[in-house]
Amino acid sequence: MTNVDELLARMSPAEKAGQLTQYFYFRLPAGAEAEPALGLDVAEQPQAVEAALSRGEAGSLLFVTDPGEINRLQRLALEGNPHGIPLLFGFDVIHGLRTIFPVPIAMAASWDPEIIERGQAIAAREARAVGIHWAFAPMVDIARDPRWGRIVEGAGEDPYLGAVVAAAQVRGFQRHIIAGPKHFGGYGAALGGRDYDEANLSDHELWNVYFPPFRAAIEAGAGNVMTAYMDLNGIPATASHWLFTEVLRDAWGFDGFVVSDANAVRNLVTHGFARDLTEAGERAVIAGVDMEMAIADPAYARLPESQAPAEVIDSRVRKILEAKVRLGLFDDPYVNEDRARTVLADPAHRAAAREAAQRTAVLLRNEGDLLPLDAGDLRSIAVLGPLADSKRDTLGPWVFDFDLDETVTVLDGIRGFVKDRADVDYAPGIPVGQRTFPSMFDMFGGNAPADPPGFDAEAEFARAVATAAAADVAVVVAGEWQNMIGEAASRSSLELPGRQLELLQAVVATGTPTVLLVMNGRPLDLRWAAEHVPAILDIWYPGTQGGAAVADLLFGDVSPSGKLPFTWPRTVGQIPMISSHTTSHEPENQARRYWDEASTPLFPFGHGLSYGRFSYGDLTVDRPVVGREGTVAVSVEVTNDADRAAAEVVQLYLRQRHGTASRPVRELKGFRRVVVPARSTVVVEFTIGPEHRRYWNAAVRDWVLDATSFDVEVGGSAASFDVRPAVAEG
Ligand code: GLC
Fold first, then answer.
1. Is the pLDDT of residue 726 over 50?
2. Is 141 in the pocket of ligand 1 (CB under 6 A)?
3. How many CB atoms lie within 10 A of CB 441?
4. Scanning 196, 407, 502, 682, which has its CA 20 to 30 A from the CA of 711?
5. Residue 125 C-alpha to ligand 1 middle, in angstroms?
6. Does the Cβ of 261 fall within 6 Å of ligand 1?
7. DSSP letter string over 52-86?
C-alpha cells in the first residue's frame, strides 16, 4: 500500500502542481489543422507534454488510446518523477470505445437501466483493456432546449429519468474504471441553446431539475466530476466554491476528485473573472477543482507562486494520489497489449450493441400498421437518403476509436436481413448535408460527410424517385449528419438539413408505401412527415451494429420499445417545451397559448409505439392515505392483446393537487420496462415513498413534504392521460 501522506511530504511544490495537471496528448493526422480555439500548436504539443512528463510535472493525460503509446508515456512519467507516481489516463468514452453503442440520448430512450449499465460496463472493459483508467462520462446535463447540440450526450429533459440513467451508467463504468459525470452544473441551460453560453437558473430549477442526476451519479459511486465551461448565475462554474465545495462535498459528501473541463481554468481570464493565469489557478483550486484539464501552458503550473494555501493544494493532490492508489496503478501501472486486442475483439460486445440499438429505437407513428414489413412478401425495397449508407454517421458524434469495417449501416442491415428474398435498391437521392462552418472535430479527420465523386444532384434525385416508384416499399433515412450535433454543434433551426424533406415528399408522392427512419440526436421538425408518412421510426445514431438492429425492428424480429426522453416540439418557435410544466393560469387554453401555432408537442415525453397492443387496467393503491414519511404501493394491470410478445415501458406520474408551491401537472416518479407475452396481462407494481413526493421549495428555500393529495397516473406516455382539459384545436 502506498502511504499518500508520506508521498506528499516528499513532493516539491512543482511536483504537486504537476499532479494537478492533465494534458491533452494527441498526434493529429498529417496536415490536420488544430481547432484555432484550442490554442494548440499541433507540432509542439506532444514534445511539450513529454518534456513535462520527464520533469514530473504532469499527473494525467487524455486522448491517448493506443496501449503501446500509453505504456511508453507511462514509462516516461515514472522515470520522470523520483516518487514512482504513475500517470492517470482519461478519455471521452461516451457511448463505447471500439464497440460503439447508440448515442446516450438513444440509450436513455430505452428507459432500461439494465442495458444502459451493461453498455457502459462493456465500454469501460474495452477502455481499461487499452490502458484508460477514467471516462469523462456520463454526461448528465438536463437538456430542455434541443437547439443545444449536446442534448445528444445526455438523457433528455427529465430529472427522474436522468437520475436513473446516470446511476446505471456510473454502475457500468465503475466496474472497471472511474466514472466522471459532467458538466457540473446547469450547462444544458445555455442561453438560446447556444453551446458555452451562460446559464441563469433559479435555485428551484437547480435543486429540482438540474442537480438530481448529478446527485444520483455520486450516490452510485462516481469517482470524479467535471466542471462546466459557462457562467452559472454570473459565476464561472469552474471557479464556483458553492458548486464544488458547499454542494458537491459538504452537502452531498462527494469524496472523489474534480477535474476542470478543457482549458476551463485558463478561461477564467476570458470570462473577465480572473486577472491572470496565476489568479485563475488559485481561485479554481480554492473553489474545489482538484485537477486542471489543459491543452498547453496550464494555469496550475503557476500554483507554487499563487496565493493558494499549501494545505488546500495538499488536499487536492491527496485526492489525485488516492484515486491512483485505488486503481492499483502504483502496483501495476502498465497495460497488457495482447489482452487489449483480445478484449476489443470480443463478439459479445457487438451482440450487446445490437441489442441496445434494438431497445433504443422509438416508433413515433405506424398508421395502418405498415410496420413490421414482411420480408417474404416484398419484391423490391428502395432504401433512400445518403444517411442510409453512411458508416460514420451511423456511429454518431463523440467516437474516435471505432472500426468502420465492422460498422453496419441501415442499407447493410436491410440487405443482410432480406438476402435474396427481395431486391434492395439504394439511391442517396440528394447531396450530403454540410455545416455552414467547420466542426471542431474535423481536425480528427473523417468527420465531414462527402458526396461520391461526380455526384450529379439532379440525376440522382430523379433516380431516387424512380427507384421509390418502382419499389413495393420505400425506406427513407433522414436526419442530421453526425457533425451537426454534439459539442459546439448547436442549431438555430430544427429543420431537416439539405434537401431531405424535398426527397421525402417526392418519394411519398410516388404512392409507394413509405417508412421514415430518423437518424438524429435531437427532436427535428417532422410536422410534414407526421401528417404524410405512415411509419416513422426514430433510430438515433444506432452505433456499430445499428443497421442490423434496424432491420430486426423493420421486419419484426423485434418490436420497438423505446420511449422519448424529451418532449418533441412541432417547431423551434415553441422551445422550451416540457412535460412537467405547472398548470399556471387558464389551463383551458393551454393547447393554444400561441395564436399562430398549437402549444402542444408533436410527440409527448415518454411517447413510443409498439408492435404489441397495450391497454391499462385499473390502477390500485394499497392505502388512500399515507403519513408524511409513509410509502404507498401502486399496482396496475397491463394487457397485450396482440398475437406477439412485446416490451412496454410503463410510466408512473404524480400530480400534487395543492401545497406550499405550485407543482407540475405531471412528474415522472417511476417506470418499468416489462415484456408482456402475446394475449396476456401482467401486473406492474411501484412504490411511492417520501423521496418521490419531496421537493425543494423556493419560498422556504428548503426541501418540503406538503400535507396534500396526489393524483397517481400510470400509462405508456406522458400524454396517456392529458390532465389539461381537452381543447378542440382548430
Ligand atoms: C470537451 C468537453 C468535455 C470533454 C472534454 C475532453 O470540450 O466539454 O465534455 O470531456 O473537452 O474532451
1. no
2. no
3. 21
4. 682
5. 21
6. yes
7. HHHTT--SEEES---HHHHHHHHHHHHHH-TT-PP
Determine the residue type at 514.
T
Q: Give mean pLDDT, residues 245-274.
A: 98
Closest-CA residue to 409 (of 540, 547, 545): 547
Residue ranges covered by each domain of the chain: 1-87+227-240+254-345, 353-570, 614-729
Instruction: Say how many Å lie between the CA of residue 101 and the centre of ligand 1.
Output: 19
Q: Active-site residue among 112, 231, 261, 393?
A: 261
% of the chain with per-residue pLDDT over 90: 93
Q: What is the DSSP string of 675-720?
A: EE-TTEEEEEEEEE-HHHH-EEETTTTEEE--S--EEEEEESSTTT
401 is catalytic: no
C-alpha to C-alpha distances, 222 to 93, 127, 324, nearest whole angstrom: 15, 16, 15
Give the neighbor-by-neighbor strand order of the sheet with 667-676. Answer: 667-676, 646-656, 710-715
Short-list 241, 376, 365, 260, CA closest to 312: 241
What spatial distance separates the first Cα and last Cα of the chain, rounded to whole Å? 73
Compute the distance from residue 230 Cα to the ligand 1 centre, in Å: 13
Backbone angles phi, psi at 679, to 5 degrees: 50, 45
* 3-state DSSP of 322-378: HHHHHCCCCCCCCCCHHHHHHHHCCHHHHHHHHHHHHHHCEEEEEHHHCCCCCHHHC
Range 1-87+227-240+254-345: architecture per CATH = Alpha-Beta Barrel (3.20)
* Residues 418, 424 contacting (CB under 8 angstroms): yes
Q: How far apart are CA 657 and CA 667, in angstroms?
A: 12
Strands (E) located in 117-176:
134-135
Atom of ligand 1 nearest to the CA of 63: 12
* Cα 158 to Cα 108, 140, 559, 608, 704, distances in angstroms: 11, 11, 25, 16, 20
- Rounded to an integer, the average pLDDT of 347-359 is 98
363 and 408 in contact (C-beta within 8 Å)?
no
Q: Is the CB of 262 under 6 A from ligand 1?
A: yes
User: For 434-460, how does the pLDDT look when each residue is reduced to its tens digit (9 = 90+)?
Assistant: 999 889 898 888 899 999 999 999 999
Query: What's the CATH number for 614-729?
Result: 2.60.40.10
pLDDT tens across 64-94, in order? 999 999 999 999 999 999 999 999 999 999 9
Mean pLDDT over the full length of the chain: 95
pLDDT tier at 722, thresholds 50, 70, 90: low
195 lines ligand 1 (CB under 6 A): no
- Confidence band, pLDDT 50/70/90 cuts, at residue 39: low
Region 522-534: mean pLDDT is: 98
Strands 667-676 and 646-656 turn out to be antiparallel
Convert 313-322 to b/e letters by CB count within 10 Å (16 or more is b). beebbbbbbb
Which CATH number does the domain 353-570 belong to among 3.50.50.60, 3.40.640.10, 3.40.50.720, 3.40.50.1700? 3.40.50.1700
Q: Please tell me if the CB atom of residue 150 comes closer than 6 angstroms to any atom of ligand 1.
A: no
State how far the Cα of 362 lies from the Cα of 519, in Å rounded to an integer: 11
